[in-house]
Amino acid sequence: MERTTIDLWVGIFVALGFAALLGLAMKVGNLTTSSIGQTYLVTANFENIGGLKPRAPVKSAGVVVGRVSEITFDPKTYEAVVSLNIDTRYNFPKDTFANIYTAGLLGEQYIGLEAGGDEVNLKNGDKISQTQDAVVLEKLISQFLYSKATESDDKPGKTASASTESGVDALDASPLDKIGK
Amino acid sequence: MVLHKLKRMLSKLGAGCINKIWRLGAGGRLFWLTLVSSGESFRRFRLTIREIYFTGVLSLIIILVSAFFVGMVLALQGYHTLQKYGSSEAIGVLVALALVRELGPVVTALLFAGRAGTAITAEIGLMKATEQLSAMEMMAVSPIARVIAPRFWAGVIAMPVLATLFSMVGILGGYLVAVPLIGVDAGAFWSQMQANVDWEYDILNGVLKSVVFGVACTMIALFEGYDAPPTAEGVSRATTRTVVSSSLAVLGLDFILTSFMIAV
């Protein structure tokens, strides 16, 4: 095969490769969407971050305004310290509220910022003091089960006492209770 | 009698081990020599371009066709399961992540070992059998600089290009099945994909994997050819060994690389 033909084909091959990489970057990857330009760093302490991970989005009113850059553990307060990179285009008041939300019932977790009313804005290195922990599904379920269990424990106890004691006693008991109070 | 048998078995095992280690060392030395004497394949880049044509361009058909089908099958299979959980829009993420992170680099490397690696081994093995390499040495032309190094760099350049094309065409195949055929919403397909595929973490790591596979596959093919006994049988065995050991090396390396990349 001629040299020029080989050159042409290799040129096409390499160009195709670059085009595919560009396609992956633009169409498939989040190079364009996640290109948060200049950011400033704020931290927030949480008692429980649930399943929050680095690179999770930081949203305000549903719009992505930044990303979680780092999550560390503070051994003095026993709290999780979450560092947030927020786009410099967006300023938030100092008393902004940071929540950990879950997208959908079992989706990924993200940080939601709710702006407060302070006139001073958050600066690089500031700390968000008002935070709300992640809702841990297992905790909720166990609380629910516990309350259900105590409810159903009470009911048989009452009926049992009512059936063993005579009706007169039961009637007497209620005025006595009232007096006691 | 039993002791004698045991002794023979043990010495067989030892010989096998020593042989394997010797081959590993010889391969490492060839790799080093290739790196050291690869100046010529860049000074006379035409040598490398010729090899890129044979290893890369001529592998395009098999890579692209299999990528297309792999993408389509991924979309069909993924939809089947995702639809049970009511999240069929996530099909885009599934196809893209599976291809970009794993299947693109790995399947490309396996196909490359079968399509281009065997060709390299057979060519160099025959060159050795017909004493072309010795003739070069007689003319004071280093066969490593003139024959081995250009093929090595061609493989290293061609593999990431092929793997990237594989991922892209596979995603297009997945799109064709998911959107026009099954009827998943096109906007959700692409936007979910873009939201969850990271440029650095997923795409660049995939490309890095394919570069490593390129080094491994090409080097194994070159070494097997260079080391082949100069007979018809020796070349045929070397070709078989190329496919077996490059496939195993790719899968093993894939596990190691993935464990490093995911852990970060």
Overview of this structure, please?
Chain A is α/β, with parallel strands linked by helices. Chain A has three domains: 34 residues; 96 residues, Elongation Factor Tu (Ef-tu), domain 3; 30 residues. Chain A contains three helices and eight strands. An eight-stranded mixed sheet of chain A has the order 7-1-4-3-2-6-5-8, with no helix packed on it. Chain B is mainly alpha-helical and 264 residues long. Chain B has one domain. Helices cover 88% and strands 0% of the residues of chain B. Chain B has ten helices and no strands. Chains A and B meet through helix 1 of A and helix 3, helix 7, helix 8 and helix 9 of B.
Condensed summary:
Chain A has 181 residues and is an alpha/beta fold. In chain A, 38% of the residues lie in helices and 28% in strands.
Helical stretch tally of chain A: 3
* Number of helical elements of chain B: 10
Unreliable residue runs of chain A:
160-181
Secondary structure: helix percent of chain B: over 70%
SSE run of chain A: HEEEEEEEEHH
Counting structural domains of chain A, the number is: 3
Shape of chain A: elongated
Major sheet: arrangement of strands of chain A: 7-1-4-3-2-6-5-8
Helix content of chain A: 25-40%
Termini distance of chain A?
A: 106 Å
Query: In terms of quaternary structure, what is this?
Result: heterodimer
**Tell me, what's the shape of chain B?**
globular
The N- to C-terminal Cα distance of chain B equals: 56 Å
Regions with little confidence, pLDDT below 50 for 5+ residues of chain B: none
Strand-and-helix sequence of chain B, N→C?
Answer: HHHHHHHHHH
Instruction: Decide which structural class fits the backbone of chain B.
Output: mainly alpha
